[in-house]
Amino acid sequence: MLLARAQMTPSETVEQVLGLQAQLARPPIVGLWSRLAGVDRREVVDQLMQRRLVRAPAMRATLHVMTAVDYLRFRRTLQPCLDRAISVLKDRAADLELERLVELGRAFFATPQTFDAFRDALARRHPTADVRAMAYAVRTRLPVVQVPIHAGWGFPAQADFITADAWLGKSPADGDYADELVIRYLQAFGPATVADVQAWSGLAGLKRAIDSLGSRLREFGGPGRATLFDLPDAPRPDGTMPAPVRFLPEWDNVIVSRADERLVPREYRAKVFRPGLRVLPTVLVDGFVAGLWKVQRRGRAATLVVEPFAPLTKRARAEVEQEADTLIRFVEPDAARSTVLVR
């Protein structure tokens, strides 16, 4: 939905891309703005409040905004990538009694609570224990969602969590839906390699799921000797299709859904993918990442700063300025003065 803005609801759009990464509250709504005609931030927040959308740990063990239906459908399928996330604890996880911790977490998060409060509760029970490791293990093993608020971008900086079954009235579905997960990924991001699907989902061993789909997929030759997979009837615009300028937020799925360099040229990858697992906000020109952007706020004045990686043509610069002017008004609606600076 980056070639032309769609006439869809926020929840329909989130369903189309299966989820939007949401380490911060604002990026998924900016991602919707880039894909939808006339998106209203309040409508997105309303759909979170109505529990049609949820924000929860999911793909790559990171926070995503997903539809409630998809979250319940795929949460257990994604558990292996959440389990592997515990490996970052290394020796700190060696003596954790995971099942007992999960039950403690289930009781604690039966009502909305922050993870800071959970760590405090653990510290009172286990004064000498590594409570940060304990809480992180619970976050990856227990299906929890964040509780939205009807203000701002939908969530405070320290949002409450609650168990998925308490918030949604249902527990995540049993079973492994890896093949369906692959199909949904290809509907949004195909053609793609096995490595692409694994990079996006955080799951390993998806070649087996792709192989099991057999004739339900088509194969294409990709960069180098790579094999690309796609759905037989999926749209595949050729290289002559014009791609308008688009501004993508931090961690946008179209960037992190690729293991290769089809969208982010090799010489720019280190500028986009930063230490600490950060993926910076990017500008697409003709379908490729051509620069970064950020918002600077001083008092009641807001400026959107664009930093191209290389000089822009006169036409591209004009398109960037026009799109940036619309975006700054969307993300900073209360600013008395909004400006755009293309360096």
Would you give an account of this structure?
The protein is α+β, with helices and mostly antiparallel strands and 343 residues long. Among the domains are: 178-230, Arc Repressor Mutant, subunit A (Orthogonal Bundle); 264-342, 2-Layer Sandwich (GMP Synthetase, Chain A, domain 3). Helix content is 39%, strand content 18%. The protein has 15 helices and 14 strands. Strands 8-11-12-13-14 form a five-stranded mixed sheet, sandwiched between helices. A hairpin with a 2-residue loop joins strand 12 and strand 13 (301-308). Helix 7 (115-125) packs across helix 8 (131-141). The chain starts with 9 loop residues before the first helix and ends with a strand.
Outline of this structure?
By secondary structure, the protein is of the alpha+beta class. The protein has helices at residues 10-17, 26-33, 41-49, 68-74, 79-85, 98-108, 115-125, 131-141, 164-168, 178-189, 194-201, 207-213, 253-256, 266-272, 314-331, and strands at residues 20-21, 53-57, 63-67, 144-146, 161-163, 218-221, 227-230, 246-248, 273-274, 278-279, 282-285, 288-298, 301-308, 337-342.
Parts with pLDDT < 50 across at least 5 consecutive residues: none
Query: In the CATH hierarchy, what is the class of the domain at 264-342?
Result: Alpha Beta
Largest sheet: 5 strands, mixed
* CATH-level-2 architecture of the domain at 264-342: 2-Layer Sandwich
User: How would you write the strand order of the largest sheet?
Assistant: 8-11-12-13-14
Helix-strand sequence: HEHHEEHHHHHEEHHHHEEEHHEEEEEHE
Q: Decide which structural class fits the backbone.
A: alpha+beta
Give the percentage of residues in beta strands: 15-25%
Q: Please give the alpha-carbon distance between the first and last residues.
A: 28 Å
CATH topology of the domain at 264-342: GMP Synthetase, Chain A, domain 3
Shape: globular
Helical element count? 15
Which value, in Å, is the CA radius of gyration?
21 Å
Extended strand count: 14
